[in-house]
């Protein structure tokens, strides 16, 4: 395999990437990506997050060579996608959003075929090892069409790993899969990453991004609107909530607390919202003590990824003076939209 042995700082670098899907028949022109810059560090688990139609699959499909970019540059494992196409391709294994498997091949045949395509010599192939790791060992010689949906999805992951690429890209790996399979896929990704594989995944499940990704880029309508480490991204909202359970009933917020954003939500329950960058929690606690109140219990709540995601995509919609994105909240969408290119290139299972 022709993956360079010198290790690049970035597994994937994308600069000023633009994709315009041309007008066809009844469909209008679509500007799916508008000047996207991304640098994915080697060894990262990088999440590309965004609502339906944001451009995630377009970006992934450009990396996979299934969609031709309109302009911009892409480097995969230090190799330019235009000038060193083969080497760039060899460095990446892509798990597409749509299941595209040939129904009349067995998992073993599919794995061997992929390894052969990438020129992996038979002695270096790890077909059974990979199939077993994904719980498909006993299905190695069954026709793909006889596999369950969950098995097919795992086979897609196996197929992307057949040439042992240093980068694995997964487009919505757990869309529409049950909780158990989701956790299996997460565990396997974590294990692969621990062994050194760089992982890029797209998702609109915020929980998935929070669980797996160390760095997250949020993409909306073809543009990157935020890119940061997961904790720094959520810290951006600078919002915290302190809930206090008190030792006795109150009729109103005590005087010592009125300078805070405090609300009495029950006779013994006080909620204080504050900006951690401006107010320290001990100042709030001191004010409670000053009022002569005993604290029976307390909890704090931080802004999470969903809060930041909604805040950023809303801001972005307002900034562009258009109506806000029509999509329902990200975690509620069951995304099964077809990828035209993937579909026309593959024979779907019956
Ligand atoms: N093959 C295609 N032809 C025309 N438009 C497309 C094609 N694929 C995607 N699009 C459009 O490009 C935009 C981005 O889509 P996509 O990259 O699939 O977003 P995501 O994966 O984030 O949901 C959408 O408006 C979508 O309708
Ligand atoms: Mg998609």
Describe this structure in words.
The protein has two domains: 10-234 and 321-345, Rossmann fold (3-Layer(aba) Sandwich), CATH 3.40.50; 238-302, Alpha-Beta Plaits. The longest helix is centred in the middle third of the chain and has 16 residues, at 179-194. It has eleven helices and 14 strands. 37% of the residues are buried. A six-stranded mixed sheet has the order 6-7-8-3-9-10, with helices on both faces. A four-stranded antiparallel sheet has the order 2-1-4-5. It has a four-stranded antiparallel sheet with strand order 12-13-11-14, covered by helices on one side. Residues 327-350 have low confidence and may be disordered. The protein is α/β, with parallel strands linked by helices and 350 residues long. Residues 21, 30, 32, 50, 52-58, 340-341 line the site of adenosine-5'-diphosphate (ADP).
């Amino acid at each position: 395999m022709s993956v360079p042995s010198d290790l690049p700082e970035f597994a994937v670098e994308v600069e000023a990437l633009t994709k315009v899907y041309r007008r066809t028949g009844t469909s209008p022109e679509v500007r799916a990506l508008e000047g996207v810059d991304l640098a994915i560090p080697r060894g990262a688990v990088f999440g590309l997050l965004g609502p339906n139609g944001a451009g995630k699959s377009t970006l992934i499909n450009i990396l996979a060579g299934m969609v031709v970019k309109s302009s911009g540059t892409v480097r995969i494992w230090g190799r330019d996608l235009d000038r060193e196409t083969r080497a760039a391709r060899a460095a990446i294994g892509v798990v597409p959003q749509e299941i595209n498997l040939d129904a009349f091949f067995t998992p073993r045949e599919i794995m061997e075929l992929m390894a052969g395509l990438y020129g992996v010599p038979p002695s270096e192939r790890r077909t059974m090892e990979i199939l077993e790791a994904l719980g498909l060992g006993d299905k190695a010689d069954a026709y793909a069409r006889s596999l369950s949906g969950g098995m097919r999805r795992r086979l897609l992951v196996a197929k992307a790993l057949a040439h042992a690429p240093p980068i694995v890209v997964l487009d919505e790996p757990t869309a529409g899969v049950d909780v158990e399979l989701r956790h299996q896929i997460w565990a396997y990704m974590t294990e692969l990453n621990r062994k050194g594989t760089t992982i890029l995944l797209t998702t609109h499940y915020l929980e998935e991004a929070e669980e797996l990704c160390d760095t997250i880029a949020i993409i909306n309508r073809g543009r990157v609107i935020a890119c940061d480490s997961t904790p720094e991204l959520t810290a951006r909202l600078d919002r915290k909530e302190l809930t206090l359970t008190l030792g006795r009933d109150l009729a109103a917020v005590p005087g010592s607390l009125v300078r805070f954003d405090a609300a009495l939500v029950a006779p013994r329950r006080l909620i204080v919202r504050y900006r951690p960058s401006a107010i320290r929690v001990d100042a709030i606690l001191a004010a409670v003590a000053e009022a002569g109140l005993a604290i029976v219990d307390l909890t704090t709540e931080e802004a999470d990824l969903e809060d930041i995601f909604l805040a950023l995509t809303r801001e972005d919609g307002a900034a562009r003076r258009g109506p806000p994105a029509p999509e329902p909240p990200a975690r509620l969408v069951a995304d099964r939209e077809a990828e035209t290119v993937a579909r026309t290139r593959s024979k779907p299972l019956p």
